[in-house]
Amino acid sequence: MKTVISTLLIAFFLVLAQNVRSQTVLEEYIREGLANNIVLKQRNIALEKAMLSLRIANSYFTPTVGLQGNYTSGNGGRSIAIPVGDLLNPVYSTLNQLTGSDAFPQIENVNQNFFPYNFYDAKVHTTVSIINTDLIYNRKISQQQVVLQEFEADIYKRELIKNIKVAYFNYLSANEAIRIYESALKRGEEGKRVNESLLENGKGLPAYILRSQSEIETTSAQKSDAERQVQNAQLYFNFLLNRKSNEVVQATLDAQEEFSKLNLTVSDSLSTQNREELKMLRESISLSNNIVKMNKLFWVPKVNGFLDLGSQAQDWKVSSASRYYLLGVQLDVPIFAANRNRNKSKMTSLDLKSAQLGFSNNAQQINLSAQAAKNNLYTAHQNYQSAKKQEEAATSYQKLIDKGYKEGVNTFIEAIDARNQLTQAQLQVSISRYRVLSAAAQYERETASYAIN
Fold first, then answer.
1. Does the first or last residue of the chain, that is N or C, have fewer Cβ atoms within 10 Å of its Cβ?
2. Class of residue 89 by CB neighbours under 10 A (exposed 0-12, middle 13-18, buried 19+)
3. Is the pLDDT of residue 4 over 60?
4. Mean pLDDT to the nearest integer, 187-208
5. Are residues 274 and 406 in the same domain?
6. pLDDT tens string 242-297
7. Calpha distance 247→238 (Å, rounded)
8. Cβ-count burial of 72 within 10 angstroms (0-12 exposed, 13-18 middle, 19+ buried)?
9. Cα→Cα distances 411→192, 204, 208, 245, Å
10. Model confidence at 305: pLDDT above 60
11. How many other C-beta atoms can be found within 10 angstroms of the C-beta atom of residue 42?
């Protein structure tokens, strides 16, 4: 059953208008992170490699031309006896008798070696694929691999943007905690001064001064812990931006001002169609389908052509008689391979089914994550509103108790409790505020609503 609430409005959050995004310090840090992050650079290298693979796949459709040459010279070994003299000498003798001359001399039999002697062969060899379905599908697959690498880079970009935002909000939250503890220290020191004044006037107790000093020391320790949290947040933030660990982080973002610029309408029907993960899975299914088609066409003959233009002769002679051309066509038809090709085709069909099931599973997981992110955002907003009301009540309560304590109406314990309540309420407002912003960044990541290109 659908929820009764069809639309949940959260004013102050998430979708910052494009015309003001470029003006924020955070957006500058995001651009710096996208430009300098090491892992993203590795993703871009993988994309460049995929593009080079596509160029290689395209090159197989063009003729391949190369210069080939060889030189051989040998003697001895096997030979063949050619009885030229035995065949022609009787004829030559008869001719000499008839003509009364020695115009036809006697010749020796020839013993010809199989090895060529001082022989060269130089040619320009050209080959071209005429029919080859593998090349066609390999090019399609290479094109899809480029798209997959682009999606992988975009996926990491979104994750990096979310991490940068959350890390920056954690840094701001820790800085604000320091300011809250500093304010608490001032209140504690003021309380100690009041107790010292009351003691001088005979209305206070030494124990109150010691208790005030203990309160100051506790707050100082909490402030020191917040300072360490700032340092850790700074280290992680600079790591994401690939900067020096001690690089200064500008804590100039006014969260309250950012809220006034933000507006989000979160409906019950979430859209995750822009998620690069789903796009990549769809492309993977299409790629697997092309592999299946390619393997099913194993029976299609492959036809290649070649052309040789060259010269071959002995003793490095080059003449019209030594020059030649050789043209040919090669045909490759598969006849029998013990069902190897059919089994390979069945395997790729199973891979396709697995990819389709994986898409359904991942789509459900992504929708679940988006729904959880929306719920977390709603909860964070509710907690922030509650924390603000608690802070207002704690502020009023502390003022009343502090005034009453100075007038002797309220006790010292009530004064300490009021100060602690105010400090905790202020901390809770700060923490809740940045949790809202962090939840917004997560929701933005889950719905792929941030424009990365």
1. N
2. middle
3. no
4. 78
5. yes
6. 999 889 998 877 666 666 555 554 555 567 788 899 999 999 999 999 999 999 98
7. 7
8. exposed
9. 14, 11, 11, 48
10. yes
11. 12
Average pLDDT of the residues in 339-350: 88
Claim to verify: residue 277 and residue 357 sit in the same structural domain: yes
Identify whether 244 is part of a domain. Answer: yes
How many residues make up the chain in this entry?
453
Backbone angles phi, psi at 120, to 5 degrees: -125, 155
Phi, psi torsion values for 46, nearest 5 degrees:
-60, -35
In a domain, 127, yes or no: no
Phi then psi for 205, rounded to 5 degrees? -125, 145
CA distance 254 to 277: 33
CB 289 within 8 A of CB 144: no
Cα 77 to Cα 311: distance, rounded to the nearest angstrom: 26
Same domain membership, residue 208 and residue 102: no
pLDDT at 256 (0 to 100): 65
For the stretch 266-305, what's the b/e string if a residue is b when 16 or more beta carbons lie within 10 angstroms of its beta carbon? beeebebeebbbbbbbebbbbbbbbbbebbbeeeeebeee
Token output for 356 = 């389709």
pLDDT at 5: 37
User: What's the CATH code of the domain at 145?
Assistant: 1.20.1600.10
Residue 275's nearest CA partner among 346, 186, 370 is: 370
pTM of the full structure:
0.79
Instruction: Looking at the structure, tell me whether residues 357 and 280 fall in a common domain.
Output: yes
Containing domain of residue 95, as a range? 80-115
| Residue corresponding to tokens 């066409």 | 297
Quick one: the chain helix, strand, coil %, rounded to 5? 65, 15, 20
Residues 94 and 139 in one domain: no
Looking at the structure, tell me whether residues 108 and 174 fall in a common domain: no
Shared domain check, 234 and 201: yes
Cβ atoms within 10 Å, residue 353: 12
Average pLDDT for 117-134:
94
- The span from the CA of 98 to the CA of 303, in Å, is 60
116, with CB counted inside 10 A (0-12, 13-18, 19+), is middle
Q: Within this chain, do residues 240 and 382 fall inside the same structural domain, yes or no? A: yes
The two beta strands, 119-131 and 64-72, are antiparallel
Give Dmax (Cα) for the chain: 165
3-state secondary structure of 104: coil
Instruction: Supply angle C-alpha 23, 28, 29, rounded to 5.
Output: 145
Q: Is residue 74 part of a domain?
A: no
Q: How many domains does the chain have?
A: 2
Question: What spatial distance separates the first Cα and last Cα of the chain, rounded to whole Å?
Answer: 38
Return the pLDDT at 211. 81
Nearest partner of 134 among 284, 293, 305, judged by Cα:
293
